[in-house]
UniProtKB/TrEMBL annotation:
Bilayer-spanning residue ranges: 6-25, 37-56, 62-86, 143-168, 180-198, 204-224
Record's compositionally biased regions (Polar residues): 330-341
Histidine kinase domain: residues covered: 401-591
Catalyzed reactions per annotation: ATP + protein L-histidine = ADP + protein N-phospho-L-histidine
Protein's recorded name: histidine kinase
Organism: Halosimplex rubrum
Domain of life per record: Archaea
GO molecular function, one term: phosphorelay sensor kinase activity
UniProt keyword Transferase, yes or no: yes
Catalytic class of the enzyme: transferase
């Protein structure tokens, strides 16, 4: 027969092990699965202490009190295991929160009833102290006890069913973790069966605590070896279920752990290679390592990597497709921060598809334990960019050709008209001369518009106020006046030549529509700068149209001045809009302008250029 001393020693050892496992597992960044498991371990540890207190209590009243606390605490085990398995299998998020709160509330109520049972006898009708094999408490349950404790038994069976189903039909890569949970969970059933059959001595709670090392050992192995509560669940919670793009999760050894439905739809070979290097189903992900740009072979077998053609057949990378196209086109090298390529191309269903790869490390306890790969099909987007680049190039070529081919005959016509006007000037020749000048302006503005709208690759630090004043000197402004406010004395990131073109076109627009004595003001705004005047302004219903090609309220204008302004602004990445100035004139607002937060020495006062001060 087992002595009380030996039994207490075994319970104490099991309790110490539970405490050690809880401390080892716990960290503040642990996800919900890990927190629930640590809660289960904590229940085992505290229950062990209560069992020891019951067995060593000097008075029966203390023994009964310890027993009631044991019953209340261990009553939470079925609920905690059930919630853990729901979360692990992905079903917890599908259960309404009120249902979860109801389960927790039910257990709290039952626990309170068990602890306070001596005052009402609703759960236990009486207590007795069994003497064999050593003194411990036994209680006789009431009819109500059978009802209130039934949900816990149901939760035990439901949790086993969920684990079994997940083991059979869940992801193959997670089967080791699932099997570990199932193995760690089943001893509870065995202990219950053996205890009720009289094969396990002592109190039931003590038997559960003594059986906990097997549970903790198996699950701790799964945590240590397979990142049970960290890697794949973390990735699925964060991105896997919310993205329409293909998502793939691998461990630190690049083995395929998980993927979403979009990934399977795009890369059909993924389900056949779970737990294997991800380069098996997706060889394009491996960077080009060889000196001649060749890929390394399979990281496990050394064979050339194989790519799925998308029609049920496969071929080694670089092997010609029977339809005459390569199976893989041109992957890019990986970066220093990622062991995978950043882009790759792939032959699918008779066409080449292009993908961007976004790699996010998954960190566990401060170290990289794996990676989440988001594979985004950018074929249409890149083709659109190429089309735009081609159209821009064609537009520039067209504008250049137009300028070249029209300028010579235009100059001839202009010269002939001027000669004719010297001999016999009349209003018809004057009108023809004005028309030729207008055509020349249209040609110049068209060429400018085609060139200035191109994307700017490199920006420099530019003194905004200086460029504004320099632009004023290149424009025929007559008696107009320029005011540069002190707050415009800043540096911005821009292309100086194109920024000056912005100011020149804005000034021409102000003078043409505001009159010879208009005052133009350059100042700062919240995230950019403003060019305003005190002229008649732009009607509210026309402010969105002023930046359109060929829009002009002046019959002599080309209608391209503000279109050029908008093209240059967009090339910088800025936004531009027309508004009303404080004096009722036009106000062109440039926003999204990046400012260099460094003051410019000696450029602080209000500057007036032109007019009486010129």
């Amino acid at each position: 027969m087992v002595s009380e001393t030996v039994y207490v020693g075994v319970v104490a050892l099991s309790t110490a092990l539970a405490v050690a496992v809880a401390v080892w597992l716990w960290n503040e960044e642990m996800n919900l699965q890990g927190q629930l498991f640590v809660g289960i371990v904590g229940v085992y540890a505290v229950s062990g202490l209560l069992v020891i207190g019951e067995l060593l209590a000097p008075w029966r009243s203390w023994m009964f009190a310890m027993f009631n606390f044991e019953a209340a605490l261990t009553g939470f085990l079925p609920l905690l295991w059930f919630l853990l398995i729901l979360e692990y299998t992905g079903y917890l998020r599908r259960i309404p929160r009120p249902a979860v709160y109801a389960l927790v509330g039910w257990n709290v109520v039952v626990g309170v009833l068990e602890i306070t049972n001596p005052t009402h006898d609703l759960i236990w009708s009486g207590y007795a102290v069994a003497t064999s094999p050593f003194p411990h408490v036994q209680a006789e349950g009431t009819a109500l006890a059978a009802v209130v404790l039934l949900p816990g038994s149901i939760l035990y069976y439901a949790a086993v069913a969920l684990l079994g189903a997940h083991l059979l039909v869940g992801p193959r890569v997670a089967r080791k973790q699932t099997a570990a949970l199932l193995v760690g969970y089943l001893p509870t059933f065995a202990i219950f069966t053996l205890w009720f059959g009289g094969a396990v001595p002592g109190p039931l709670t003590g038997a559960l605590v003594i059986g906990s090392p097997l549970i903790l050992g198996v699950v701790a192995w799964a945590v240590f070896r397979h990142q049970l509560f960290d890697l794949a669940p973390l990735a699925r919670e964060s991105v896997l279920e919310v993205l329409d793009d293909a998502v793939v999760v691998v461990d630190r050894d690049r083995r395929l752990l998980d993927y979403n439905a979009a990934a399977v739809e795009t890369f059909g070979a993924l389900p056949d290679h779970e737990g294997e290097p991800v380069e098996r189903p997706l060889p394009e992900l491996r960077p080009v390592d060889g000196p001649d740009g060749d890929r390394d072979g399979d990281p496990v077998t050394g064979d050339a990597p194989v790519v799925d053609r998308g029609d049920g057949t496969a071929a080694a990378v670089g092997e010609p497709d029977p339809r005459g196209d390569p199976t893989e086109v041109a992957p890019s090298n990986g970066t220093d921060d990622s062991p995978f390529v950043s882009t790759f191309t792939r032959f699918e269903d008779g066409e080449v598809r292009e993908y961007d790869v976004t790699v996010s490390p998954l960190e566990v306890r401060g170290s990289v334990a794996g990676y989440t790969l988001v594979l985004r099909d950018v074929t249409e987007r890149r083709q659109h960019v190429r089309d735009l680049e081609q159209q821009t190039t064609q537009l520039e070529q067209f504008a250049g050709r137009l300028s070249h081919d029209l300028r010579n005959p235009l100059n001839v016509a202009f010269g002939r008209v001027e000669l004719a006007r010297e001999r016999h000037d009349d209003e018809h020749l004057a009108t023809a001369s004005d028309a030729l000048e207008r055509i020349e302006g249209i040609v110049d503005d068209t060429l400018t518009l085609a060139r200035e709208g191109q994307t700017i690759d490199e920006l420099e630090r530019v003194d905004l106020a200086t460029v504004a004043r320099d632009a004023w000197e290149t424009v025929d402004t007559g008696e107009a006046e320029l005011v540069v406010e002190p707050d415009a004395g800043v540096r911005i990131y821009a292309d100086a030549t194109r920024l000056q073109s912005v100011f020149e076109n804005c000034y021409r627009n102000c003078v043409e529509h505001g009159g010879a004595s208009v005052t133009v003001t350059v100042e700062r705004c919240d995230d950019g700068f403003v060019v305003a005047d005190d002229g008649p302004g732009v009607p509210a219903d026309e402010r969105e149209q002023v930046f359109e090609y060929a829009y002009s309220s002046d019959d002599d204008g080309t209608g391209l001045g503000l279109a050029i302004v908008e093209a240059i602004a967009r090339a910088h990445g800025w936004a531009v809009e027309m508004a009303e100035s404080d004096s009722g004139g036009a106000r062109v607002v440039f926003s999204g302008v990046e400012t260099v937060e460094t003051p410019i020495a000696g450029d602080g006062g209000r500057v007036v250029v032109g007019g009486a001060d010129n």
